Amino acid sequence: MTRKEIALQTFNKGRDCDKAVFSAFEKDEKITAKEDKYIHNCEFPGLPHTKCGAVSGAGCVIFHYKENVGHEDTAEEMWSKFKTEFLKRHESMNCTELLGYDLSVRKDAMDAMENEAIMKTCPKYIEDAVEILEDILGTEV
Question: Which of 8, 22, 72, 123 is the most buried (most CB within 10 A)?
């Protein structure tokens, strides 16, 4: 199973976008964190407060990969590469802008669920985050 498939499978089981992206890499011997609390407590410098979950998960992968393995690039350099490529593809890293709904507003969240906006749009961001990470980390499956 590819990393993209693992991420989408995790997402389709009802997990958040950040956990979906992180799950694609946590079986790698270089990424050993298994606890859900890790992904939700991971804050990477430069992430916007209203970040897309796939972007947040990518930041956690970069940070954790760098801490456990090392890499010729610094975490900041890897993050910069990720950010540049993600923005090239999607023009934003803001969940509300990407989804078209502000999930912190009850009515928007209800409308997003009713219109299946999350299931229709988020898989592409998850797939792209995984693909970009594989390229940056040199870990394509």
Answer: 22
